[in-house]
Specification:
mainly alpha; Clc chloride channel; CBS-domain; 3 domains; 3-stranded mixed sheet; 25 helices; about 65% helix
């Protein structure tokens, strides 16, 4: 295999070889996405084939819990407790691991997400396929000996192909990568993304049945009299996106504080999830089936499953449930993931959007304010929540345009998605998946300088050759240290190695040649405090800010108060130039 790859590489230019690699990546991810979607679809079919009300309800309650426990067992035993969930995981690999993704992620997320969602876990398959695509692209690039930039590009190609395959939306796949994964990609790199995305979408289109995909065939001309209501819907969805992000973050943080161990969390969180799904069956799985029913106006069919299959409710009762479910979906998804299941937030975002759009338009119609096309508002709202949650308005616009098979809704999609995004962005600088990474300085941004800083680390530029001296030493002792040193700065420590201060040669030049002072002056009397102190765990963004604010050329680095070295602007700029050359 290696000889064949080497032969092909010799026979082609760099661009030609990269294009072949993009096609290969797109083909692999297309196949994996088809396997994942098909597995979940046929697992779900089993639940809907059961006619017995009691047995169906019991299975609906038990399956999500059972699925999460199985996934936790697999993760603990097979993957040693490490899985790396969420799109933020890929952003971290790009920022801190030079776009190197562990090869077991090429299949681990397919297995675990298929079990989680297939057995009813209330999460989406898109984030797992994004991670899978990134892993495949990264590892193929390493196998083919591509450099960092090409490896990152192939990682993005895998992501684009994954999104394109699960939605049969090649344009959305490319735009998702540009907006969420690789934010400062160059225009000439669009072509490889397009090729991989089209490859994944073609496989999906050829092999997958339309029932498996989220697609709509609703065609209706836009009524411009409804524009004010689309504007109002965008505002509502902006705040709904904020609610989603804050609720998810709160549940995740609460879960981390609970000391139950992986299996304890799986049982407690799985039971809570199963109870929610038992009470509100549309929360079962991805929920794409119920979205299609809402868009088709088949409200009663949405609840023709589980405990509501025997309940006859009027439209106001069902509408009330729709509103509650829109608010509860994020809780169910967060419980699924926090309990140990594997899934993502893209499908839940679309679900929340669809239910919110249906609720909004139905209320307006019920109150005889205006006669709104409920199907349109249901579909458009999906793009609104996706845009507000991921700060990806173009992805929201083009994804919904592609899955509806036309651009009739393009104007309302632009209105709703942009307003939702602007409101969410106003109140929260970073999207949900990036917020934790941003706080640690680990995330890629639109600023190329910051991108390089995220890859740099203190460990790589710390200097340990500065001479040290005890704070109880005399000036004479310091002069002896100066004789053996080639640096102009000296670090003062106590007996335990804790940083006390520093001495610059220029500060003692007047007295260092006066031998009468050698035994009279103590180092502690002539040292000064550093303008800033760096911690070994600080991000390079924070380090840069401290240099800017202090005006210092050199700053000491400590770990729990103990001095371990120093960083100078010279070493920092040298590393920056090296990384800049490496990334280009």
């Amino acid at each position: 295999m290696n000889k064949f790859i080497l032969y092909i590489r010799k026979q082609t230019s760099r661009t030609q070889f990269l294009i072949l690699a993009c096609i290969f990546v797109g083909w692999i991810i297309g196949v994996e996405a088809i396997i994942l979607k098909s597995a979940v679809y046929y697992l779900h079919s089993v639940f809907y084939l059961i006619d017995d009300y009691f047995f169906q309800s019991l299975l609906t309650f038990a399956a999500p819990l059972f699925g999460i426990i199985i996934v936790v067992f697999i993760v603990q035993k097979v993957f040693k407790g490490k899985l790396g969930r969420g799109i933020a995981n890929i952003l971290y690999e790009i920022a801190k691991k030079n776009s190197i993704v562990h090869k077991d992620k090429s299949y681990s997320h397919i297995i675990t997400s298929a079990i989680t969602v297939g057995l009813g876990g209330s999460a989406g398959l898109e984030a797992p396929i994004v991670i899978t695509g990134a892993a495949v692209g990264s590892n193929i690039a390493r196998k083919f000996h591509f450099n960092y930039r090409d490896r990152t590009l192939l990682l993005g190609c895998g992501v684009a192909a994954g999104i394109a395959a699960v939605f049969n939306a090649p344009i959305a796949g490319v735009i998702f990568v540009i907006e969420v994964i690789l934010k400062n990609i160059r225009v000439k790199e669009f072509i490889p993304l397009i090729i991989s995305s089209v490859t994944g979408a073609l496989l999906s289109k050829i092999i997958l049945k339309e029932d498996i995909l989220l697609s709509f065939n609703i065609v209706m001309d836009l009524d411009y009299m409804n524009i004010p209501f689309y504007i109002l819907l965008g505002i509502v969805l902006g705040f709904m996106s904020l609610y989603y992000a804050k609720t998810s973050t709160y549940i995740e943080q609460t879960s981390r504080r609970i000391r139950l161990g992986p299996y304890g969390k799986a049982i407690v969180g799985g039971l809570a999830l199963s109870l929610l799904i038992f009470i509100m069956p549309p929360l079962f799985g991805e929920g794409y089936g119920s979205i299609k029913m809402l868009a088709a106006g088949k409200l009663s069919n949405v609840f023709n499953f589980g405990i509501y299959s025997k309940v006859i409710g009027n439209e106001w009762f069902y509408l009330f449930l729709i509103g509650i479910i829109a608010l509860t979906k994020v809780v169910a998804t967060s419980l699924t993931i926090s309990a140990g299941g594997n899934g993502g937030h893209i499908a839940p975002a679309l679900f929340v959007g669809a239910y919110s759009g249906y609720f909004f338009s139905s209320i307006v119609n019920k109150l005889n304010i205006m006669e709104l096309p409920v199907a349109h508002f249901t579909i458009v709202a999906m793009g609104g929540v996706l845009s507000g949650l991921y700060y990806a308005p173009f992805t929201g616009i083009f994804l919904i345009a592609e899955i509806t098979g036309g651009y009739n809704l393009f104007i309302p999609l632009m209105i709703v998605s942009s307003i939702s995004y602007l409101i969410a962005k106003h109140y929260e600088p970073f999207p949900m998946d990036e917020k934790k990474l941003a706080a640690k300085g680990h995330i890629l941004t639109d600023d190329s300088d910051k991108n390089i800083l995220t890859v740099m680390s203190i460990e790589n530029i710390i200097e340990t050759d500065l001479a040290t001296i005890k704070n109880t030493a005399t000036l004479g002792d310091l002069v002896e240290v100066i004789k053996r040193s080639h640096r102009n700065t000296f670090i003062v420590l106590d007996d335990d190695g804790n940083l006390q201060g520093l001495i610059d040669l220029d500060d003692i030049r007047e007295i260092m040649f006066n031998e009468k002072m050698y035994k009279l002056v103590i180092v502690q009397e002539i040292m000064k405090q550093p303008r800033k102190i760096l911690d070994i765990n600080e991000s390079m963004t924070s380090v840069m800010k401290k240099f800017e604010h202090s005006g210092a050329w050199l700053l000491p680095v400590v770990n729990a108060g103990k001095y371990i070295g120093s960083i100078s602007k010279t070493s920092m700029f040298n590393e920056y130039r090296k990384m800049l050359k490496f990334k280009n």
